Amino acid sequence: MSSHGNYDNSANAPYWAVNAGIAKNYPSHSAPTAANVAYLYGNTTSGVYLTDETIGLFMVDGNEEGVAELGSNHPVHTGWNLRTEGSGDRAGRVQWETLVALATVSSDNNTDDTTLPDSLITISVQPSSVVGPVSAASANTVSLSVTAAVTAGASVPLSYEWQVNNNSGGTWVAIDPGTGVTTGQPGQMTKTGANTATLVLDPTGTSANNYVFRCKVFNTAAGATTYSANGRILITA
Q1: This model's pTM is above 0.70
Q2: b/e per residue, 14-49, with b = 16+ CB within 10 A?
Q3: 120-236 is classed in which CATH architecture?
Q4: Following DSSP, what letter does each residue of 198-224 receive, concatenated?
Q5: What is the C-alpha separation between 100 and 1, in angstroms, rounded?
């Protein structure tokens, strides 16, 4: 039986995989002991094995699936995976073998991020720090926008959620599209694009004065989330 767990460390490695991974090369190390799990898991030095392979045992979560190093034709599955890096005629070729496949991993693991980086979302264009003052009487329209991209790890689709805070000790709440007003949101304004990269506000009254807005950019499956800087609007009568 394997003893795999949710964390990417030698203590949670599947012991039987150690036998499969090193017995053919180092019979004296083939016993499924904690020391031999660490021996396999911790090896990142080329040439240690008789086959001149670099071998590493990694617990891969959804954040690291499809990482760019692997390419679309060689995906890594969630669970315990064995990484083999070739040498000689196979130099530069990386092979992944799924040893224990899991539907999900409940905790993100960071130990292997140098080899399998998490998806990282970067916002290159932030919303304006202060918009206005705008005239409520003139029913001016205000737009807040972000530009975001995945800059590391797997390329994943991005979702957006604009949030608002009354800037007076309130909490962040998701924008209610349309003209609806829920707790913590200003009234007298039409809100569109609440789940896109651009939020459009029609501040027809002064109730939104000094409120701050930010955008949550995320991919739930990849466990990647980032927040934009705050944008504040000033409204005159």
Answers
A1: no
A2: bbebbbebbeeeeeebbebeeebbbbbbebeeeeeb
A3: Sandwich (2.60)
A4: EEEEEE-SGGGTT-EEEEEEEETTTTE
A5: 11
- How many whole angstroms from its chain centre is CA 225? 6
N- to C-terminal Cα separation, the chain: 71
Report DSSP state, residue 49: S
**CB burial of residue 50 (10 Å; 0-12, 13-18, 19+):** exposed
Dump pLDDT digits (tens) for 54-73.
Answer: 667 777 877 776 554 444 45
**Which residues have CB under 8 Å from 27's CB, separation 6+?**
none
Q: Domains of the chain: which residue ranges?
A: 10-101, 120-236
Q: Which sign does the torsion angle of CA 11, 120, 91, 46 carry? A: negative
Instruction: Give the 3-state DSSP-derived string for 2-42, with helices as H, strands as E and coil as C.
Output: CCCCCCCCHHHCCHHHHHHHHCCCCHHHCCCCHHHHHHHHC
Token pair 């599209």: residue: 177
If you search the block for the tokens 């027809």, which residue do you land on? 204
H-only helix segments in the chain: 15-22, 34-41
- Give the chain's mean pLDDT: 75
Whether omega before 14 lies within 30 degrees of 0, making that bond cis, reads: no
In one-letter notation, the amino acid at residue 32 is P
Structure tokens that stand for 177 in this block: 């599209």
**Amino acid identity, position 13:** A
Q: Are the beta carbons of 219 and 159 closer than 8 angstroms? A: yes
